[in-house]
Structure formats: structure tokens, C-alpha cells
Amino acid sequence: MRGALILSVAIFLSGALQTLALSPYDYWVASIGSLVLFLALTKALDPNSYLSPKSAFYHGWLIGFGLFASGASWVYVSINTYGNAPPALAGFLTLFFVAALGLFHGFMFWLYSKLKSKYLGFNVLLFATLWVGNDLVRSVFLTGFPWLFIGDSQLDGPLSGWLPLIGSYGTTLILSITSGALVALSIDRQHRTALLVTLLLIALWTPGYLLKDKNWTVSTGKLQEVALIQLNIPQELKWKSTQRPKTIDLLRKMTEAHLDKDVIFWPETAVPLFYTSARPLLSQFGRKAEAQNATIVTGIPYSGWDSETKSTVIHNSVLAIGNGEGIYHKQKLVPFGEYVPMQDVLRGLIEFFDLPMSNFRKGEENQSMLSVNGFSVSPFICYEVVYPDFVANRSIGADYLLTISNDAWFGESIGPLQHLQLARLRALENGRYMVRATNNGVTAIINTKGQIEEQIPQFSQGTLEGQVRIYEGETPFSRVGSMPIQILCIFTVFIGVSLRWRSNSNKAQSL
Questions:
Q1: Catalytic one of 382, 384, 429, 489
Q2: Residues 301, 192: one domain?
Q3: Any idea what the Cα angle at residue 194 is, between residues 188 and 200, rounded to 5°?
Q4: CA end-to-end span of the chain
Q5: What is the distance between the alpha carbons of residues 253 and 461, in angstroms, rounded to a whole number?
Q6: pLDDT beneath 50: ranges in the chain
Q7: Cis peptide preceding 442, ω within 30 of 0
Q8: 214 belongs to the catalytic site
Q9: Active site residue: 238, 330, 332, 384, which one?
Q10: Total number of domains in the chain
Q11: pLDDT at 454
């Protein structure tokens, strides 16, 4: 009993260890240490060690639970502070959230136990592909939660050269294979195995280092002078009517001081009014900007009439005014923050299910980019930038990328810094500059290598001035996204099913 408890705690901690590999800690080697520890504790790769499906599910859930409990518990801040849920209730809802996310890992490891073979090498590949397959499924299930991938740790790691080719999913695969191969050495200690593992690691890790300075996209030599405004409006004041005139006056002062720039970027829902009510104000700003040959890009809630449902719909949007045009409605909505699943049941139960602006409608697919002083900008609102394939698809043809956000919902937790890391990853994966305008930080200009060129610290008010360089062409990941990784996952599972079927057939014939 005591041994089982110690094992459970150790597996939970192996999951928590993965969080240390990501921002703001950035100990990337912890991503390998986590999986090595997990595989060693469960003896999952050893062909001679039986792994029951029940134990596999439980142990898989435990490592997932440890990962999300340590890495995604920042949801507590928005539930408790801004949803006004008592600490006990907020803690329970947070615990339920992270425990439910752990189920993805539980099902992944359960499937592994079903397909595990007598071949050590195949077991390494099977585990690695199922691990990254779990991330792929988690990215699309319901609205998706593509967060806390171990491959994200390689943004500043030795495998960063792989990111423009195979993305974060691909580096997750490499780290998983590496971890499995190291554990395999302790199972099969023959010189031949050691040689194969050494050659494998050289083949996987050397290109990642050598390709770090490879430029997959090409600078056009053109650039835009930009200003990014960070308002730092406390979330509890943002939507109060008494704060609205102060916010608008602040926007006016900070913007008029930078109309000599090509583009001035405001953060998500910077204007605390619906578009229909804000049109006179926006027209005024637009005329001033156009007179200076400048563009203002702002986040704003947009309301419109839906002829099909014969009702008013609300979008979380971004639009360009002045010497620019276009409007984009957010497609990837945050559950409970921007819409409430099963709202007929949940609304009214607690204040968290009635947060301000939590009834948005998702925008249509294939929306046009923003035109900004003659350049095409692909916008992403807050949560959207965390989706690797979504960003890759919308980066094609863009001169640069934009993400606007309001991370004030998550206070001083690690969530906003993880969010920044993901924006940097998308810039590197797609070989484009990324402009990141936020309400309370971190506002930044990110180059094509995912490095921050300029930034404003969190929880401060100010304007970031800088240059955005225009690049053309596409990275391999921009063109094909995660499709090769998906194919590998499906193919490996197919091989696993075939091997299991053959094994069962041989057993039946021997009886």
C-alpha cells in the first residue's frame, strides 16, 4: 500500500516536472527528465514487464494531472478573483479542470498498454507517437487546449532549428523518442543497442542545432515603424462605465503622441464599447490617423444582426482604421471566458458563469487579413495564437503576424508568460515577425527567430516603439503543418494493431 502511494506521488511529480521545462522557468532538460522518470517508474517499455490497461490509465492520468496541476492552475485566478467564487469553490473548480485534462494522458497510456509489443524499439516509437498524438487530439477536442507541450521547451533549446520544419508537435516527438531511447538503454544493455541509440540521438539532435541559423523566409528589405500601446487597465475596472471616459482619454493621449508611426496597435477589447456605439469615436481617431498616413489597429467587441437566427450576435474582434481597413472576428473562443458551454444550465449558478462579455459568437473561417498601410497582417486574438496549425494556415501570404491579448484575467500567475512563449513559438515556426499588443503585458515585438526585440514589462503603462521587418516565403511547417506527424501517429498505431492481432492469432493457433 505504501509502495503504491509512493509510486503514485512520484508519477504525479514527474508530470509536474514538465512545467519546469516551460516558461517562465525554461529548464528544457526537465522535459526529458520527466518522461525518463515516468517510463522508468512504470517499466512501460520493457517487453518482459506486463502493463495492465487499468494501471496504465491510472498512471497516465497521474502524469497528466501533475502536469496540469502545476502548469495550468492559473485558471484559479480568473475563477476566484474575477469570477468572485469563494476560495474553496474556486479551488474545487480548478482541481476538476486539471484532473479532467489529465484524462487525455490516461487514455493515451491505456492505448499504449493495449498495443505494447515484444519489440523494445517499437515500444519506444509507439510511446512517442502516442504522446504527441495525445497533444494533437487535445488541440482539437471540443474547442481544444494546445497548451503545455514539452516541445515548446525547445524555443530556446538545442532543437529550435527543427521548429520551422516540424513545429512544436515535431519537437515533442523528438523529445519523447529521446526519453524512450535513454530508458531503453537500461533495459537492453548490449553494445549494439547502445550504438543504435547513440546514432539515433545524433541523427535527431544534430540537425536541430545546425539549422538554428537557417532562414526559411526572406527579408524583403521593407519595414514598418510601429507603436504598441499597453494601457494596464485593471480587469475589475475595465468594463465599469465610470472607467470608460478615462480609458478613452488615455487612448487618445497615448495614440496622438505616436501618429508619426506607420501603425499604432491597441490591445484586445481596448475600446470598452461595442462597435456600433464606438463608431463616432473610431471615425474621429481614423481621420486623425489618416491625416498622418497612419493606421490604428484595435481590439473591440462587435455586435451585429444574424439574419438566420434573427438575433444580435457579439464577436470579439480586431479592426483597422485610418490608412488601413479590415475587420476580423475571433474564431477560437475561450470556454467560460468568451462563451459558456451548456449556458442554459450553467448561467446563474455562480458568478463565474456570468462573467462580462462571455457570450461571444465565433467568427467564420477564411476571413481576410487586415490591410495596414499597404501590408497584409494576419491577426490572432488572445487564445488563438496557441494553436500551431491554425496560425500556420493563416500565416500564408501574411507580411507579418499580430496577436492582441488581455492577460489581466490571470493576474501575476505564470499563465501570461506561458502565453508569451507560445506567441514566440508561432513566430519561429512560420518565419514571420509577430507583434504582440496586450493590456497589461507582456507587450512585445518578436522577430522571425522567436526572439524578443523590444518589450514592455508586465503591469506597467507605456508605449513600445519599434520596427517590424517584412518577410516573404513560407517555412515547411507553414505549408504542411502537423500533417506529417499525424500520418506517423496513425501509421504507428496501425502497425501496433497489426502486431497485436498477429500475436493474438499465434496464441490462438498454439492452443
A1: 382
A2: no
A3: 115
A4: 37
A5: 13
A6: 342, 344-347, 349-350
A7: yes
A8: no
A9: 330
A10: 2
A11: 96
Q: Contact, 367 vs 302, CB < 8 A?
A: no
Catalytic-residue membership of 268: yes
Nearest to 229 by CA among 283, 267, 284, 279: 267
Q: Max CA-CA distance within the chain?
A: 87
Based on the fold, state whether residues 227 and 204 are members of the same structural domain. Answer: no
| Residue 154 structural domain | 2-214+481-510
Kindly name the residue from 116, 238, 261, 268 that is annotated as catalytic.
Answer: 268
Predicted local confidence at residue 212, as pLDDT: 95
pLDDT at site 25: 97
Main-chain phi, psi angles of 263, to 5 degrees: -140, 140
Quote the pTM value: 0.93
Annotate 15-76 with DSSP letters as a single string: HHHHHTTSTTT--THHHHHHHHHHHHHHT-S-TTS---HHHHHHHHHHHHHHHHHHHSTTHH
Give dist(CA 186, CA 283) in Å, integer. Answer: 68
Do 237 and 94 lie in one domain? The reply is no
Catalytic, 310? Answer: no
CA 485 to chain centre: 17
Kindly state whether residues 327 and 246 are assigned to the same domain: yes
Claim to verify: residue 168 and residue 243 sit in the same structural domain = no
**108 lies in the same domain as 167:** yes
Q: What's the rounded Cα separation, in Å, for the pair 428 and 80?
A: 35
Which one, of 217, 218, 209, 215, lies nearest residue 160 by Cα? Answer: 209
